[in-house]
Write a structure and sequence with these properties.
Blueprint lengths: L1 E3 L7 E4 L5 H16 L6 E5 L10 H12 L5 E4 L11 H11 L4 E10 L6 E6 L2 E3 L13 E9 L4 H7 L2 H30 L1
Parallel strand pairs: 3-4, 3-5, 5-8
Antiparallel strand pairs: 1-7, 2-6, 6-8
Helix pairs in contact: 1-5, 2-5
């Protein structure tokens, strides 16, 4: 569970129930990556969450899906259903990523809580994500960009809300985010080919 920092950079909301949301998210993500990343930089998708609570499994599901079809040099995925990145291993994982991938550009992906009328929305923003803040966990900020899926509303007993979140909401957003990332990677690959030739 995450909250995001509103800074001078805006946070963009996408309604995952709208037909073109994956395409629009992919375009916006491509534009932000092109703005910040040199062509030879490693891009890391850090999918945060636990597979033990429905509301917190968005990240690991996305990591699982991405790891099945993204096998491109320069793109790396951490946090899957088999090997989730969560509160207990987040700090060590980030340290390992920074050691293994010099000057990596990290895109943090996590579930979040929000307003009830924003359930099902996906957010994209620049800057770090604060994982665990939605459920009062003190974890380090991570990422150069972030993607979150608002899986439930924020209120009292947020831990209970994680257990009662509908899996359909999580899976629908995971599908849209994975489509957007796939589109984004194809855009970046074609850009790199144009720069090489």
């Amino acid at each position: 569970m995450s909250i995001f920092f509103k800074s001078k950079n805006r946070i963009i909301y996408f309604n995952s129930n709208e037909q073109n949301s994956a395409y629009e998210l992919g375009l916006a993500l491509s534009a932000l990556i092109k703005k910040h990343v040199l062509y030879n930089k490693n891009i890391v998708f850090l999918c945060i969450g636990s597979d033990r609570a429905t509301g917190d499994c968005l990240g690991p599901i996305i990591g699982y899906k991405l790891s099945k079809y993204i096998n491109q040099p320069g793109f790396h995925i951490y946090g899957t259903l088999e090997h989730p990145v969560h509160a207990k291993n987040l700090k060590d994982t980030v340290t390992m990523i920074n050691q293994k991938h010099d000057n990596a550009f990290i895109i943090a992906i996590d579930a979040s809580l929000g307003k009830s009328d924003h359930i099902g929305y996906i957010t994209l923003g620049e800057g770090p994500l604060k994982p665990g803040a939605g459920v009062d966990k003190d974890l380090p900020e991570v990422g150069d960009l972030f993607i979150t899926g608002i899986v439930n509303f924020s209120g009292m007993l947020d831990h209970m809300l994680l257990q009662t979140t509908r899996l359909n909401v999580v899976m629908s957003m995971a599908d849209q985010i994975c489509l957007a990332i796939s589109y984004c990677i194809n855009q970046i690959k074609s850009l790199l080919l144009n720069e090489v030739y």
